[in-house]
Automatic annotation (TrEMBL), chain A:
Residues 1-22 form the signal peptide. It comes from the Bacteria. Pfam families: Cytochrome_CBB3. This is Cytochrome c553. Residues 35-115 form the Cytochrome c domain. Keywords: Heme, Iron, Metal-binding, Signal. GO terms for molecular function: electron transfer activity; heme binding; metal ion binding. PROSITE patterns: CYTC. InterPro entries: Cyt_c-like_dom (IPR009056), Cyt_c-like_dom_sf (IPR036909).
Automatic annotation (TrEMBL), chain B:
Residues 43-344, 461-524 form the Pyrrolo-quinoline quinone repeat domain. The keyword Transferase does not apply. GO terms for molecular function: oxidoreductase activity. Keywords: Oxidoreductase, Signal. Residues 1-22 form the signal peptide. It comes from the Bacteria. It holds the Pfam family PQQ. Transmembrane segments: none annotated. InterPro entries: PQQ_b-propeller_rpt, PQQ_rpt_dom, Quinoprotein_ADH-like_sf. This is Alcohol dehydrogenase (Cytochrome c). Its cofactor is pyrroloquinoline quinone. It comes from Pelagibacterium luteolum.
Length: 139, 563
């Protein structure tokens, strides 16, 4: 039953330190814009923060964190379109698709920025097909 | 959008003072005797009676005449996450809406008697859910989403007293109806997914004045037991143990029974801990006098897949023994002696793939591959929705069966991850999942299971394309009422499972149906609505996309036989 070895335990305790707000991640395929991040922050606070927390730490037991280790594990490596489509179709719960695709993209830009993806002068498009070519990687 | 702090709110707060009927004069207080042995015309508690049967002793509506049921009145409710239970006393229905609104309605006509609107702090999320309220003496007890217990004058809706149960700014919230026992109002709270010194707890208040009498936290403190079941991790990093159902009460045994949720984060790998984690995933039997834990029973030590194993406790004697039954997300009917906590053999409904049981009804072991490892996708049946959840099962003394509202689905590609092991960190630790149909039931998400509590045999099973989305209601007329996500509301024959009546609702049946009598007529009330967790949102939206519903629409719908 003891699956967790001490080394893992040490690792977990070490990782705790990393509120990933520095430039920890790179976005390839395009960029997120300053103004977009601000728009996304507003939309996130209104539509998402009630469950996912205004600091992206979940305040609802069923909702995942959108930062830290959960972000590192869930948002990196795959086409960004996957997360985008999941958010558009299911969030907020029961009201999937209730915001415009561009607003969802703005929210994604805000989530990426909060996790340390640097801003550029281009913006994330509200278009799943285009986001197929975007990937987040850990630095 | 925000209606908080606006002059309108102040106005409506004043409006509560305008009782449209002279309710005050006619109101008869609810006595201790009635709490223990209510008039069948009333539905006084969350599950009707303190033994949590969810059973109405009314028998005017029967298998023979139920086909004639007709719509009598409805009442639209506030928007938000809707999972309510109405209660009824002396022909008045009291109901909590999402977003902190409570109303008293004439239970025969649907006329408004009074309304209470809670004013929340600035920025508080709108439309937060409530699963029920309570009545005792001359007061209604409303567990408010901002973690305040509000006592209202049952005749007028005026605030009698308020008690801050926990800190809503620290994520704490009240969702479950309080239990009335021993002159006290006893309520638990949830919101313990982030690491904090403030643990989830069960708290008792003096019903008359709101004085806090005791508080029992659900997490073992370091040094409390002989061996630390959290493997000596700091107290602040012990998460979970949320309470989101109502306790049951046995006045003879002088015990209350309440279910404690799993540890958080959900997976052992995320919480950096393999310990049993007392008192998570347990039944606590508490002395209502002082809150002391008289016995507890942990169903799965160190539970690791978000399987809440303890919801409502149905108190029923088995083989002449004072016993209880309880079913959690895995669909296992746990049974035990309710005076001692001693296990009785358990019945696995047979679709979970996570654990094995011993013959005596205790946990044996996790199956191969069912304890997550960081970053490695795994499959679990059920998914974290559970085969069942807050939608309570009802018991019928005539059939000796429990009627279980289920959603049959699995998690595929669940990935658990580390979490931030600091105060304020935590969360559920899951970074990905996909919901899929159960391989043994590829066409249906929903089911009502009738299970014999003595033998574990299925009397019958009633499949539904979408999830069962209400609690069940049993009646002395030999009926079981339940509804689904696809807006169907059914009356089934308790013995055979035959559909005797059904109707199409404007929105999903969602909440706890009840039956009551007013002016000599028996009614059945069913809440409808939207919101809630993935069982009633993303799971049916993703897996049964051909089923379309309106976007909103919370309401109470009331049915009766023609006059």
């Amino acid at each position: 039953m003891m699956k967790l070895e001490l080394t893992t335990l040490g690792l977990v305790f070490a990782i705790l330190a990393a509120p990933a707000l520095a430039q920890d991640y790179t976005l390839s395929g395009g960029g997120i814009g300053e103004e977009q991040i601000e728009r996304g922050e507003d939309a996130f606070m209104t539509n998402c923060a009630g469950c996912h927390g205004d600091d992206l730490r979940s305040v609802d037991s069923n909702a995942p964190d959108l930062r830290g280790p959960v972000f590192a594990a869930g948002w990196t490596g795959n086409p960004l379109s996957e997360k985008f489509e999941k958010i558009v179709s299911t969030m907020p719960p029961g009201r999937g698709g209730s915001l415009s695709d561009q607003t969802y993209a703005d929210i994604v830009a805000f989530i990426l920025a909060t996790n340390g993806v640097p801003a550029t002068d281009s913006e994330l498009p509200g278009d799943a097909e285009a986001l197929d070519g975007y990937t987040v990687t850990e630095n | 959008m925000s209606r908080l702090g606006s002059p309108l709110v102040a106005l409506s707060a004043l409006l509560i003072a305008v009782p449209t009927l002279a309710q005050d004069a006619s109101f008869t207080p609810v006595s201790d005797q009635e709490i223990l042995n209510p008039d069948p015309a009333d539905w006084l508690q969350w599950r009707a009676t303190v033994n949590s049967w969810g059973y109405s002793a009314l028998s005017d509506i029967t298998a023979e005449n139920v086909g004639e049921l007709e719509y009598v009145w409805g009442w639209a409710m506030e928007p938000g996450d809707q999972e309510t239970t109405p209660i009824v006393h002396d022909g008045v229905m009291y109901v909590a809406n999402p977003g902190g609104v409570v109303q008293a309605l004439d239970a025969a006509s649907g006329d408004l008697i009074w309304e209470y609107r809670r004013q929340f702090p600035e920025g508080f999320r709108e439309g937060r859910l409530n699963r029920g309220i309570s009545i005792y003496g001359d007061k209604i007890y409303f567990p408010s989403p901002d973690a305040v217990l509000v006592a209202l004058d049952a005749g007028t809706g005026q605030i009698a007293w308020e008690a801050v149960v926990a800190d809503h700014e620290n994520g704490k919230t009240l969702t479950a109806a309080p239990l009335i026992a021993d002159g006290k109002v006893i309520v638990g709270y949830q919101g313990c997914n982030r690491f904090s010194e403030e643990k989830c707890a069960i708290v008792a208040y003096d019903a008359e004045n709101g004085e806090e009498l005791w508080r029992t936290i659900t997490i073992e403190r370091p040094g409390e037991g002989e061996e630390d079941t959290w493997e000596d991790i700091p107290f602040v990093l012990r998460g979970g143990g949320d309470i989101w159902t109502t306790a049951s009460y046995d006045a003879d045994a002088e015990l209350i029974y309440i279910g404690v949720s799993q540890a958080k984060p959900w997976s052992r790998v995320s919480r950096a801990n393999d310990g049993a984690g007392y008192y998570t995933t347990s039944t606590l039997a508490l002395n209502p006098e002082n809150g002391e834990i008289e016995w507890f029973r942990q169903y799965i030590p160190g539970e690791t897949n978000d399987m809440d194993e303890s919801f409502e406790h149905i108190l029923v004697d088995i083989d002449g023994e004072p016993a209880y039954v309880n079913m959690g997300k895995l669909g296992i009917l746990w049974r035990g002696n309710r005076e001692t906590g001693e296990p009785l053999p358990a019945f696995d409904f047979g679709m979970q793939d996570q654990i094995d049981l011993n013959d005596d009804g205790t946990f044996a072991a996790y199956r191969e591959g069912k304890i997550g490892e960081v970053g490695i996708p795994m499959t679990t049946c059920p998914s974290s929705t559970g085969f069942r959840s807050w939608r309570a099962m009802a018991f019928s003394p005539e059939t000796r069966a429990v009627y279980v509202p289920m959603t049959i689905n699995c998690d595929d590609g669940v990935v658990y991850t580390e979490v931030e092991m600091v105060e304020g960190g935590g969360g559920n630790g899951r970074s990905a999942t996909n919901r899929i149909f159960h391989p043994d039931d590829p066409d249906n998400l929903g089911r009502i299971l009738a299970m014999d509590v003595d033998t574990g045999e299925a009397l019958w099973e009633f499949p539904m394309r979408t999830p069962a989305n209400t609690a069940t209601l049993t009646t002395a007329g030999g009926l079981v009422f339940a509804g689904d996500w696809d807006r169907n509301f059914y009356a089934l024959d308790a013995a055979s499972g035959d559909v005797l009546w059904q109707t199409r609702l404007p929105q999903a049946a969602q909440g706890y149906p009840i039956s009551y009598e007013a002016d000599g007529r028996q009614y059945v009330a069913i809440p409808v609505g939207v919101g809630g967790a993935s069982w009633s949102t993303s799971v049916p939206e993703d897996l049964t996309p051909e089923v379309r519903r309106p976007a909103g629409g919370n309401a109470m719908m009331v049915y009766a036989l023609p006059l």
